[in-house]
């Protein structure tokens, strides 16, 4: 009998790609999402890719009674992958209470139910934002966490603490926190990808929407950073590579290969790329000229960060495979499909 995995936020960007990889690996998937930043149609596209539609339930994990009732109705869950969270840095600066309520309460409710209903395994969607602006690059898993630059980043830091402390107090629980760098791109089928509701908060969907004529111009937040071209540097990772890492992490927990009950891994490529390099890279790959304007720095943004991926490569047994050009190409193919562009 196949193992059953609960994926919270499973109709979202990273969640949907992970559901695809889990189903391709033979897992039985249950998705919970409140659809606050995603669309129910994603489930049909997952089915088109994999031949199977995951079971879906719509509710907000911040509602304790509904979360408890869900676990009561699904007594045979083997592991949880927790994506469900608000995730825009800029918005979190403007609406900190929204982020603290959504991101902290949902994890607390989830872990209380895991303990109550004996669901021992959790993979948590964390972020390199927990490192703040590191003094030394690249960052390893032992790089000290810093005070966050945004409420969003702080929720990831506090959630890691909730995870660590709860697992320490409950020997039957096991968890892995995956600290993502910057996920981009789309599934090669162009059936699922990043589709933010409203104005995009992340770089690549803003690039593709500008290229498609949805946005008048791309805003580049700052060109006076201490970087070669003055724009901020990030470690951009293909979303399918990222999704596959979750399958590896789940298998590590289910097979008892974890060395401690709580583990942390960086998920990146090990290469830093600037915003302006991304703009030029997209233009080169697609042949589309982008309208962009340099504007002031954005609150909550850091200057530069990229990963040391040695530990994830060697200990987790996972490595990013897709190159930046292929990844940008997949993002543009996704944008063209949803906009009906030939």
UniProtKB/TrEMBL annotation:
The NAD(P)-binding domain extends over 6-328
SUPFAM superfamilies this protein is in? NAD(P)-binding Rossmann-fold domains
Q: Which UniProt keywords apply?
A: Carbohydrate metabolism, Isomerase, NAD
Q: Which residues form a coiled coil?
A: none
Q: Does the keyword Isomerase apply?
A: yes
What is catalyzed by this enzyme?
UDP-alpha-D-glucose = UDP-alpha-D-galactose
EC numbers on record = 5.1.3.2
- Its top-level enzyme class, in one word, is isomerase
One BP term from GO: galactose metabolic process
Kindly indicate whether the keyword Hydrolase belongs to this entry. Answer: no
The cofactors named for this UniProt entry are: NAD(+)
Q: What family is this?
A: Belongs to the NAD(P)-dependent epimerase/dehydratase family.
Q: How does it assemble?
A: Homodimer.
What protein name does the entry list?
Answer: UDP-glucose 4-epimerase
Q: Which gene encodes it?
A: galE
């Amino acid at each position: 009998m196949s193992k059953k995995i609960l994926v919270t936020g499973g109709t979202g960007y990273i969640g949907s790609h992970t559901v695809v990889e889990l189903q391709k690996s033979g897992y039985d998937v249950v998705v919970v999402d409140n659809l606050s930043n995603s669309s129910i149609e994603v489930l049909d596209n997952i089915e088109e890719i994999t031949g199977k539609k995951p079971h879906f339930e719509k509710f907000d994990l911040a509602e304790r009674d509904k979360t408890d009732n869900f676990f009561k109705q699904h007594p045979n869950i083997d592991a949880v992958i927790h994506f469900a969270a608000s995730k825009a840095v800029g918005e979190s600066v403007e609406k900190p209470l929204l982020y603290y309520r959504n991101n902290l309460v949902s994890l607390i409710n989830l872990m209380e139910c895991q303990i109550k209903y004996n669901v021992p395994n959790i993979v948590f969607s964390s972020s390199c934002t927990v490192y703040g602006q590191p003094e030394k690059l690249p960052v390893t898993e032992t790089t000290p966490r810093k005070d966050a630059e945004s409420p969003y980043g702080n929720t990831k830091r506090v959630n890691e603490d909730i995870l660590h402390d709860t697992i320490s107090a409950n020997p039957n629980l096991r968890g892995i926190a995956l600290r993502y760098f910057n996920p981009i791109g789309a599934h090669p089928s162009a059936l699922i990808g990043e589709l933010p509701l409203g104005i995009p908060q992340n770089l690549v969907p803003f690039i593709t929407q500008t290229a498609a004529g949805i946005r008048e111009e791309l805003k580049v937040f700052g060109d006076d950073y201490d970087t070669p071209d003055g724009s901020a540097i990030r470690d951009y990772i293909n979303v399918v590579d990222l999704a596959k890492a979750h399958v590896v992490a789940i298998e590590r927990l289910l097979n008892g290969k974890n060395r401690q009950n709580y583990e942390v891994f960086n998920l990146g490529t090990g290469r830093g790329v600037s915003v302006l390099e991304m703009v030029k890279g997209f233009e080169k790959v697609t042949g589309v000229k982008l309208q962009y304007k340099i504007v002031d720095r954005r609150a909550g943004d850091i200057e530069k960060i990229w990963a040391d991926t040695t530990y994830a490569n060697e200990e987790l047994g996972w490595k990013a495979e897709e190159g930046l050009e292929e990844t940008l190409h997949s993002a543009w193919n996704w944008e063209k499909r949803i906009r009906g562009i030939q």
